[in-house]
């Protein structure tokens, strides 16, 4: 079945550092790909999405490019802030509304 | 526009009991999905309802069931609770039934089974 594998956490960085969280997927067909974020004490929120190969999703300084040839959707940000501390989930969906989540990566940004 | 609401937010039950959780979707949304979040298994899909019909079901035992009402509100029920059912249960709603529609998540119901 479809699956998502993302970088093991936790990840700790200093403010203004460059962030990469790796994500690869296994799926038949052409899924849509998402990054969701879960801030402390809050619900899951959609951060960005890409629906076809070579699409780049972006939001709040975060970017991810749908790479069909490497089945990857790595999340990047050029300069992280303390407020980016959260758990990040790489997610795929294909067809119906069933989301398949990666295991989540806890990110902590120190001032 | 009000977001997805879930009630109750916290619940403590004893093994063997049953529990019902409620989810009210965003107004106008007709699809409701349920997910279980645990430290060990992460986020796992339970089931999805659209227009009162269950369209998808995840790999959970029959003790987990759900339904959707004509106003799109949804409930999930867990019977004969086990310690391993302790988890955060998340509900998400979306406008439509296909994967192209964004899912909006509620804050979750934290269930503790003792």
Explain how this protein is built.
The complex is a heterodimer of chains A (111) and B (114). Chain A has no helices and twelve strands. Chain A has strands at 3-6, 11-14, 19-21, 23-26, 32-38, 44-50, 56-59, 62-65, 75-77, 86-93, 99-101, 105-110. In chain A, the strands form three sheets. In chain A, strands 2, 5, 6, 10, 11 and 12 form a six-stranded mixed sheet that branches. Chain A starts with a strand and ends with a strand. Chain B is mainly β. Chain B has strands spanning 5-7, 10-13, 19-24, 31-38, 42-50, 53-57, 64-68, 74-78, 87-94, 104-105, 109-113. The mean pLDDT of chain B is 94. Chain B is built from no helices and eleven strands. In chain B, the strands form two sheets. In chain B, strands 2, 4, 5, 6, 9, 10 and 11 form a seven-stranded mixed sheet that branches. In chain B, strands 1-3-8-7 form a four-stranded antiparallel sheet, with no helix packed on it. Chain B is 0% helix and 53% strand. Classes of the chains: A mainly beta (111), B mainly beta (114).
Number of separate helices of chain B: 0
Which class best fits the helix and strand makeup of chain B? mainly beta
What is the tally of beta strands of chain B?
11
Outline type of chain B: globular
Mean pLDDT over the full residue set of chain A: 93
| Low-confidence residue ranges of chain A | none
Distance between the termini of chain A: 41 Å
Order of helices and strands of chain A: EEEEEEEEEEEE
Residues in β-strands, percent of chain B: over 45%
Taking Cα atoms only, what radius of gyration of chain B do you get, to the nearest Å? 13 Å
Helix and strand run of chain B: EEEEEEEEEEE
Topology of this protein?
The complex is a heterodimer of chains A (111) and B (114).
Chain A: E1 3-6, E2 11-14, E3 19-21, E4 23-26, E5 32-38, E6 44-50, E7 56-59, E8 62-65, E9 75-77, E10 86-93, E11 99-101, E12 105-110
Parallel strand pairs in A: 2-12
Antiparallel strand pairs in A: 1-4, 3-9, 5-6, 5-10, 7-8, 8-9, 10-11, 10-12
Chain B: E1 5-7, E2 10-13, E3 19-24, E4 31-38, E5 42-50, E6 53-57, E7 64-68, E8 74-78, E9 87-94, E10 104-105, E11 109-113
């Amino acid at each position: 079945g479809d699956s998502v594998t993302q970088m093991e956490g936790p990840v700790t960085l200093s403010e203004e550092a460059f962030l990469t969280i790796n994500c690869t997927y296994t799926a038949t067909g052409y899924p849509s790909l998402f990054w969701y974020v879960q801030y402390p004490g809050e619900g899951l929120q959609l951060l960005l999405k890409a629906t076809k190969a070579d699409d780049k999703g972006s939001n709040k300084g975060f970017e991810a490019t749908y790479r069909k040839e490497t089945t990857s959707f790595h999340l990047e940000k050029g300069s992280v802030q303390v407020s980016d501390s959260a758990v990040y989930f790489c997610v795929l969906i294909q067809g119906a509304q069933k989301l398949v989540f990666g295991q989540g990566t806890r990110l902590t940004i120190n001032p | 526009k009000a977001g997805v609401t879930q009630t109750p937010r916290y619940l403590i039950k004893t093994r063997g009991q049953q529990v019902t959780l409620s989810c009210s979707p965003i107004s106008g949304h007709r699809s409701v999905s349920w997910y279980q979040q645990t430290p060990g298994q992460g986020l796992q899909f339970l089931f999805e309802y659209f227009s009162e019909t269950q369209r998808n079901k995840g790999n959970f035992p029959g003790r987990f069931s759900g339904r959707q009402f004509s106003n799109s509100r949804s409930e999930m029920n867990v019977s004969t609770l086990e310690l391993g059912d302790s988890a955060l249960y998340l509900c998400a709603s979306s406008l439509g039934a296909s994967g192209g529609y964004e899912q909006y998540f509620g804050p979750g119901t934290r269930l503790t089974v003792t």
